[in-house]
Amino acid sequence: MAKQYETVIGLEVHIELATKTKIFCGCSTEFGGAPNTHTCPVCTGMPGSLPVLNKQVVEYAMAIGLATNCKITQVCKFDRKNYFYPDNPQNYQISQLYLPIARDGYVEIESGSGKKKVRIHEMHMEEDAGKLVHDEWDDTSLVDYNRSGVPLVEIVSEPDMRSAEEVIAYLEKLRMIVQYLGASDCKLQEGSMRADVNLSVREVGSDQFGTRTEMKNLNSFKAIAHAIEGERQRQIELIEEGKQVVQETRRWDDNKEHSYAMRSKEDAQDYRYFPEPDLVPIVISDEWIEKIKSQQPELRTEKLERYKEQFDIPQYDAEIITGSKKMADLFEATTAICEKPKKVANWLIGETFHLMKDNEMEPEDLTFSPENLAKLIDLADAGTINSSVAKDVFKQIFQEDIDPEKYVEEHGLKMVNDEGALRETAAKVIADNPQAVADFKGGKEKAIGALLGQTMRAMKGKANPGMVNQVLRELLK
Hints:
Blueprint: E1 5-16, H1 55-67, E2 71-72, E3 75-76, E4 79-82, E5 92-95, E6 102-111, E7 114-127, E8 131-135, E9 140-144, E10 151-157, H2 164-181, E11 193-203, E12 213-216, H3 221-240, E13 248-253, E14 258-264, E15 274-275, E16 282-283, H4 286-295, H5 300-310, H6 315-322, H7 325-338, H8 341-358, H9 370-381, H10 387-400, H11 404-410, H12 419-432, H13 434-441, H14 447-458, H15 465-476
Parallel strand pairs: 12-13
Antiparallel strand pairs: 1-10, 1-11, 2-6, 3-16, 4-5, 4-15, 6-7, 7-10, 8-9, 11-12, 13-14
Helix pairs in contact: 2-3, 5-6, 6-8, 7-8, 7-9, 9-10, 12-14, 12-15, 13-14, 14-15
């Protein structure tokens, strides 16, 4: 019988924190910017420059630690991790090895295999490195230090995950917690959330771990799922052929769907860690922890409960809306204005998601205001515009956040409720379509659809469809 294998996966997740300035200097953390413009002597590693810790970084890290059920280390400190690489200007990275800010936590995930807790080994604060830009044409590499010194937390899980599905569930849960806290936007495509996957395989029933590899360069959930599947297969094939799995760091190439060995895995001693001499230890008082606890926002689980009670919307709607902090904020702000929660939910789950899919957007990329969505819902509700016009107007709101009241006025889109004009148009359509009239009178109910469509077209889509239907039926009698 063929051997059965189990995959064992642990993750190291780096999250870029949403502070305005870097971890040890006053430079901007904004994404983009011309190369090397968000820099100063501290983040470019100039001799004699000294780091000063950004307090907001510690507060965000504590908030994430508390929300993931970790114990906060009340005396924690920074260490120097020494390595030589062009994107690392000081030739060391300020990180935390011996006393990380948080440890021993967990998050609960739900996947096809049910609910489970994924344990968090530890979470530490550190600075990001710069970015190497490889120019294939010139065969040169350039370095951009804008990202150097941007604050990160690294969350290291225990090897508790057994499939790509569980890994994605864990990442989505982490991303949601951090977004709800406002600690990061967690955009994988901009690198503000990155995951390295540690993976090994073993025979089912074995309690020994296999040799693990670490995979880097994963910047989408799709890439992570593919990389896990690819690496699992690669290791099983090696074992079946009687070969050894080598402990190493591998780079995933998303275009070729293949991973390449980068380097054999270093151990902590290779980095010659020692306590960071330029920074004092951080002492976190009980009061400080209580203050952060008291400021924690409502997370998704509590929001779900409240939505069902306060807004009386179906569980399905509540789950989709609370799946993103941005969506939940939009829903609540729009509902506060127009007081029609079910209709707001319908617009967000229907049209908004549809347009987001067409434009390959995430909820975080939405730019329209709750005021304009609320106005549109009121216009449609009052019968000022019909549903097809409302959808067209919403497209404009989605793209350019236009004021729907002005737009409807300027483009003459108000619904025509003038029965005289409607009767006249309907009578003309009936006279012009004897076949459809004969079909309808002969018992073909569907034939009225053709007449209704023609009448709506003649009224430039601005008639009230219910009224058109009624008038047609009266005239056909």
